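Record 1 of the preview.
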Amino acid sequence: MNITMIPLAELTPNSRNVRIHSAKQMEEYKRSVKQFGQTKAIVCDENKVILIGNGLYEAMKALGETEAACFIKTGLSEHDKLKMMMADNKIYSLGVDNLQTIEDIIAELGEVKDFDIPGYDADLLETLTFAPIEADDFMGGYGLIGSSAKADMAKASEKYAQEEAEFASEAEEIIPQGRFRPQEDGSTVFSPPTDIDAGFPEKAEETQGNALQRRFIVCPKCGEKIWL
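->
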């Protein structure tokens, strides 16, 4: 296999690339190129149209690289080019991670606290090396809310409660027909049927141009106001 250095400006991305490269993947591609350089050749045809390595090409171009190591594949029919593109992506996706080996490597890297690995989240990898007591300490702080946030939440809650009370003071309570209503002492009182039409907002065409009426009913089970 003869590898040739070709200016990126002379390469043509394949318009029928079968792989969609997400923004996240492209960021990790660039991280990899920055850290290790180009680690595999871009495969293109005799017209310098990329068959394999479109994502790598985009990453190198974004980083300002001017040329790439390429393998020019000649003698392929147009159908063979398409088949090779599909085969390369599919065969790669059929692989399965060896979790035990990955765990061993992470543990080894953990000894030097070096988790700067393109494609992985360094903080996540570090948590995988925690000793049980470290994991307990880490999880112990998960979901805790700081005092400042608690104060803001309490202040917002008081504000909303006040606004609701002011709103409710001007609202009209609607009593649906034949319902039991809870009382403050825990008992319930039966409300006789009333005229439904008189108890709910008028039809839309009758209220055009008028202010929205504030009306509510009381839930017979929990006593909460249900705004209409």
